[in-house]
Design a protein that fits this description.
The complex is a heterotetramer of chains A (387), B (254), C (326) and D (292). Chain A has 387 residues and is an alpha/beta fold. Chain A has helices spanning 2-22, 46-65, 85-98, 110-123, 153-166, 180-196, 214-221, 235-246, 262-268, 295-309, 315-334, 338-346, and strands at 33-39, 74-80, 103-105, 127-129, 146-148, 171-177, 199-206, 227-231, 253-255, 276-279, 351-352, 357-358, 374-379, 382-385. In chain C, strands 1-2 form a two-stranded antiparallel sheet. The chains are: A alpha/beta (387), B alpha/beta (254), C mainly alpha (326), D mainly alpha (292).
Amino acid sequence: MRLSRRIVILLSACLIIACFGISRIAKAANEPYKIGAIFSITGPASWLGEPERNTAKMIADKVNAAGGINGHPIELIIYDTEGDETKSVLNTKKLIEKDNVLAIIGPSRSGSSLAIIPTIQEAQVPNISCAASIKIVQPVSERKWVFKTPQPDSFCAEVMFEYMLGKGITRVAIITISDGFGDSGRIELLEAAKKKGITIVADERYGGKDTDMTAQLTKIKGTDAQAIVNWSIGPTQVIVTKNVHQLGIKIPLFQSHGFGNTKNIEQAGGAAEGVLAPIGRLLVAERLPDYHYQKKLLMDYKNEYMEKFGAEASTFGGHAYDSMYMVIEALKAVGPDRAKIRDYLENMKGFVGTAGLFNFSPLDHNGLTKESFEMLKVKDGMFVIAD
Amino acid sequence: MKKILSAYNIRKEFGGLTAVDKVTFDVYEGRIQSLIGPNGAGKTTIFNLVTGFSPLTSGKIHFRDTIINKKSPHKLVHMGIARTFQNVLLFENMTVLENVMVGRHIRSRCGLISSAFKFPWVFREERAIRHKAMEELSFVGLEKRAGEKAGSLPFGEQRAVEVARALATDPVLILLDEPAAGLNTHETQKLAQLIKQIRDRGITVFLVEHDMSLVMDISDHIMVLNYGEKIAEGGPREIQNDPQVIGAYLGEEI
Amino acid sequence: MNIKNIFIFILMLAAIVIFPLFVPNKYYISVMVVVGFNVLICIGLCMLMGYAGQISLGHAAFYGLGAYTSGVLCTKYLFNPWLAMLCGIIITGGVAYLIGVPSLKLKGHYLAMATLGFGEIVFIAFNELSFLTGGPSGMTSIPRLSLFGLALNTDLRFYCFTWVVVLVTVILSINIVNSRVGRALLAIHGSERAALAAGVNVPAHKIQIFVLSAIYASIAGSMYAHFVTFISPSSFGFMKSITLVTMVVIGGMSDIWGACIGALILTVLPEYLHVFHDYEILIFGVTLMIIMILMPKGLFVGAMDGIEWIKSKIFRKTNEKDTVGI
Amino acid sequence: MSIFTKILQYIFTGLTIGSIFAMVGLGFNIIYNATDIINFAQGEFVMIGGMVMVSLTKGMNIPMIPAFFLTIIIVAIVGILLERLAINPLSNPSIITIIIITIGASIVFKGLAMLIWGKDTFILPAFTGETPINVGGAVIIPQSIWVLGITLLVVACLAVFFEKTLLGKAMRACATNRKAASLMGINVNRMVMLSFALSAAIGAVSGVIITPISLMDYHRGTMLAIKGFAAAILGGLGSGAGAVIAGFLIGIMESMGAGFISSGYKDAIALVVLLLVLFIKPTGLMGKSELR
């Protein structure tokens, strides 16, 4: 009786596993160019990895459908880091040693990105990170093989404070998430504040799985702050936004560039009204003038993504978009050679991407300027360019 | 005769309920001394107090010349007090021999580090432990069962293993908590033999038992407990004729 | 060591020597290095859980303490890595002692919660003490180890180093569990009251093995820090503790070899589950549950029982007792 | 802002988050009482509750109230399935085996939720608007009142159920002595199944009421399980009242800790208190001693 039930469970499990196994059929191709990617597709930062993976896949399919790079199809190999550093390092090694890829894009998170740098440097494989922290590409002397596409946190902090100064705001409360992203943001905020002459009157933190930040915000409410800056990615941004609204805090709320997803506005409901955030132009592509150098590219990406996945594109996917096309361009120019790809990337100038205009140099492996950010404001449930 | 254990005015409360109330008694060396009384009289509680398994509320217990009120059980074993349990507590996942070998723990010294590196004296000590454990097993007549899992033995033999384990600690005083419970007549007879043999080895036996014929048969001295208080004390004959004891046991067979 | 242990040990030794010769690419060497770390922790955890019967849902904290002590001392105070590793052992052992003394008085689920809570507190400390630990972004450029002037800078060298450590640990641990101390631990697992009555100093032995298992985890942590050269708190959180316990239980916690096999399987399994993409988590969970339902004592013990069962079928021994876990 | 207002605000916040810890802790206790099992998938019931409610109201446009009850039924069925497929086949499992199995179950639920609902975060509209209510300078949002009220209602219903109804008494009998209960003609097997259904249902209720405040994604369950477990242990296993009080206590300690000491260490503060309580009283605030 007991035995038979256990056998049934065992058999059904085997069946499930077998079904999945069969559905995988390998396809052979003519000298493909192998590009590796590691994103945090599952786990606590899956909202980053998901659009990144989708975008990378979409581009690979598109290029392959158009005949590949100089006739060579792209073979895109994607691994999931689950947001975990050990897995990131192992997956990087796997891409380099097992799959023998020409370049690696990702990971999604700053922590993972920093973790894989020693491996990347040692194996000498070009890597274009999709994570924010500026530490990933600095100092360049120790980051010879590492590039990154997202705007650095320091720009975000500076753009924010410059905007505030323009509005006469000098006393600011900051509230950050305690993970790699928030931590890096917090450091940049404190530094930029010093540089720009802004006083930080409160410095609060919260955990990535917290469901209520009222306590921290109550503390902030008791200060004489003229503005609040929240620095996080994911659902916590929405909760902070709602809590600020609920507590009846009237001073403006600034969010980091992690706010770059229209879903956030939708979920925060009315509370998001008036929220300010420096973000890449992807979210306001429709409202850019036609002559803007990014307009066509952004609109194309947005429409394609919507068509293929039925969801709004986010700036995170955009980082993967930029990384992919950079590698593709390099491959087109110099062919399958890791060192040559790196050299090509380092000297790439005037590359138009979703984040802005990239001008790499041996001293700058990010290549963006503050211009790549636009201060956006939520108005009537949409992002508009703030005045 | 020398006192080996003496309790003075010991008292135990469990959340306001008095289980043992101001009991004073002595156990003399080289005897079989029994503690009897109706169910719930506080016999096992006294055993737990003596062996350090539960702390006294008040009073004093001397073992030879030392006050042992606050000593932990393993220290008392080291001093020479061993015990068995009413409902037999064996390490069922270990073999019979291993069970008895655990009893040698307190008389051996090899620690974590010497065990890990298997220094030569570890082998020597281990051999001695095994030898002594086998001796105790044959003493209780179970040398043939040494390799079997303790949990698979019949109940009577499990009890014997427990006694062997207690003996392996080299005790001077052994406390047996209802050793005859659950045994048949034949087994009880063997047990009586065994207890006498233990005494003949020079080990004092302190016994809690319900089987009156066994108690009367082997005891040198008997103490009677009722509702946590000592009501009588003396040789088997005296006790059998004590009106207070008969009163306490009214309804129960003596 | 008895014949079974010697046999399995030789098998393991052979596998470790042969593996790098036939491995298709270097990547699998680094996977095996990580397997080595997990095996190391799981051996300690197995002695704690399987032998002494004490649960711990906070062992990732000890792993992290080892890693962070090495990381901090080597990068901030420029210690020699070996000295830092030793400091890690001392600090972790000390912390384990301090938390173990009150915690190990607790039983069952209460002990589980206490260790879980301790693990979380340490995890929060890693995040918050950013002046030391670099906070949530972690710390980079931890130096590599070198042994007798030979830098352990390739995966293969680190592989050899790791597995030598593991093999030595295995021998020591098997000696321990088959000794007077191991017997005492099993006794505690069986019945604490009976162990006390037999003269076993129960609290001291529990603490001792708790500290020892913490030290194993600390060594693994230090090695991890020097291998990956980057550490951040997220590698040492609650989920890591759970994974470690799962490894030990799935492998079979009543045997050191079970813990080793559990660590191997649960580290390597995700590599293969990868082909299932988004179904990976689901299949992983289902696999866990099925193993536990079918073989509650774990794979190794289950397999051993299976071998016994087959033997008894072949030789038609008189005792027809059903020893199989199913 | 006066210190009084601040304290009041922290208490409101603490009670709101504490309600959920209390509910999860209560769920732990119901199963524990009937079976001696700690079900680490308890947090997943909350997550599934929230997600199912989102699907029913937003995807299928079912009105709030019927959707609410439908959600409870669906999640209760999930609970029954868990018990029948994973717990029932075991004979005499150890604590640790059960912990691994229920953790395995929580991984499975997480994986399924990811496949069904994707990786996005979802939200439900508040039951009665979002306009905050001002109390002595502090604000409380209507949804918090709902959360608190429903938590207390659930506690009251459970108390009545266990004290007054035959079924509840039978379940309690199982808790005290399984063998005796089965000798009395109580179907222990069915009681165990019922306890899973009941605690899953409570999980579903908390999922539905908390989603408008804290949002919900497939990844949320683990943390809730840890906090709920902490509440159950702090209160003392087996004591429903203990779990509820402990849940509120943890919530308030967290919000006070974040407000007055350090927001980074707020979880640590609650945990340190928990550890200290255990070290002084090894069976929690209101617990009886645990067998084993």
